[in-house]
Amino acid sequence: MKCTNRKRTCFHRGAALLCAAVLLFLMPGCGGKEIPLAYNPDSDVSSFRIADESAGTVADSFAQDLCVATGDVGTDTAEVDTEALTAAGLFDLNRHEVLYARNIHERLNPASLTKLMTAVVALKYGNTEDTITVTQDAMITESGATLCGLEVGDQLTLNQALHALLIASANDAAAAIAIHIGGSIEGFADLMNEEAVAIGATNSHFVNPHGLTADNHYVTAYDMYLIFNEALKYDLITEIIHMTNYETVYMDSEGGSKTFSFNTTNQYLSGTYKAPEQVTVIGGKTGTTNAAGSCLILLARDTSGNPYISVILKATARDVLYEQMTRLLNVIT
Q: What is the mean pLDDT of residues 277-302?
């Protein structure tokens, strides 16, 4: 009997390796063998590329359309103040190139950048016209948490909740979405972690849908790039993060009308800060907690319309965050 081979690549990032691939030979009647492959973009056989000399073919890897970096990039030439932040990255989406990287594989608290993963999971498993009925479990009591004012029994669509989630960064909207989609906060977090693995963000872990500080809730700057890159595949998310304000009417438990209205938390969109002249900020997500510091991830375009993702985690203050983000965006020009 002739044995046949099938090849599979998979990825894991850790302290020592950005990626590792496993070449799995499945041989009916002959057993199987796993061969771990070190990260090496120039090798014929690596997490980037698997060559089959006998067949004269090369298997495309998971990362073929992604920006990849194992360490710091461009920190010696960019004017970003490395003392003002913990991690940062700038990714050219067309060329699949990392233009800047500092500590992009360090695990950090993401604060409300978490809500991008919440939106991805919500749209993957839900329908925008679904009606969400707010339950007691969705009530957020943490002091200082940003809320849109939802109360038990309120009813709104998933579409409305996503706007509150991404524009106002409403934690109660995040909890309501999670319970509606996942049945519970814990159930939804399981879906978030499954989706993180599916898109390659294997150095992240979520325990809630809003990003309020919790043990074992973390991301990396690189994984936030992967998550945002996935989020941008949904037209609704791209539309929402570009909005400067939003107003809508929903229903209370008695069927009466309620209104919420809010403005973007993104200070590039509000006009408080300006991007470099040759760069246009399309939108993004902000995040701030004591543990996470000031965080921001953006989609921007150059004068030719080419897209970039930029991210900063744990800046020392909000004004510092925007100052350093502007310096990071200058790398594009």
A: 98
Structure tokens at 166: 């991404």
d(CA 107, CA 96): 23
CA distance 284 to 113: 9
Predicted confidence (pLDDT) at residue 202 exceeds the cutoff of 50: yes
What stretch of H or E contains 276?
none
Place of tokens 């090798």: 43
On the question of pLDDT at 6 being above 80, the answer is no
What is the rounded CA–CA span in Å between residue 274 and residue 330? 12
The contacts of residue 22 (CB under 8 Å, 6+ apart) are: 8, 9, 10, 34, 35, 36, 37
Cα 249 to Cα 234: distance, rounded to the nearest angstrom: 24
Q: Which residues are catalytic?
A: 112, 115, 169
Q: Copy the structure tokens of residue 259.
A: 């209104």
Stated length of the chain: 333
